[in-house]
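Can't paste images in this forum, so I'm doing it all in text. The chain is below; anyone willing to post the predicted structure tokens underneath?
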Amino acid sequence: MRKNTLFWGIVITIVGIALLANSIGALPQGWLNFFWAGLLIFAGLWFLISPRLFKPNREEETLDMPLEGARRASIRFNHGAGRLAVRDGAGAGALLQGTFVGGVQPTAEHVGDLTEVNLKAEDLVIVPGLLGTEGYSWDVRLTREIPLELKFEMGANEAQVDLTHLTVSDLKVEMGASSLVVMLPERAGMTRVKVECGAASVRLRVPEGVAAHIEISSGLMGVDVNTSRFPKRNGFYESDFYATAANRVDISVEGGAASIQIQ
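Text version of the structure:
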């Protein structure tokens, strides 16, 4: 049984029993304060001890997902905490291949010539570094054979994403306290990039010869844009040859206490 399911199942059951007993007057007056104090102590002990009792799977799993006639694909990475590496390199006839430490729940749905893939981390509570626990470690290779749409949903994460030789039309990133480095495609035509981040470090690398239009809306954000390549204009950054470029990226970044670097 997964840790979070077990824990919250126990908590809800205890609270339900206690409230029922209180409503029928089966418990002495004034017991409620002791009950809530005890419940907090139980919760604290659970988060301290459970990483020792419920260790996540550290075996390495492999995944080989074939193209099966797909002409385009949408791939969603629901990674959680840990390390993630994504690049090209899937073998002939494969949509994606990879190794997954910590477990993965893959699903695929075929809609016409589109294949929709969801790679979801196992449903575990993992806090890297807490009492020796480790996060997930995924190494994923994607196909060069068809256009891709990619979405990343990440928590406390360190991600390296190299899309240089891939045809990616859309890239969406939702991340919390994470570190992300992305090499954007060099020959994908138009690539739309949207990043939403919290307390994160984001570095986007635009290949030479690729034009960019960049819009950044932020709160407490450190912004470092290479203005020699992408001059600042009326509230945005844009390459001089953006309108006529054969390969270009449209980048939108929204963040809070984040550091953004675009080169």
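The two ends are 45 Å apart (CA to CA). The first helix runs from residue 3 to 23.
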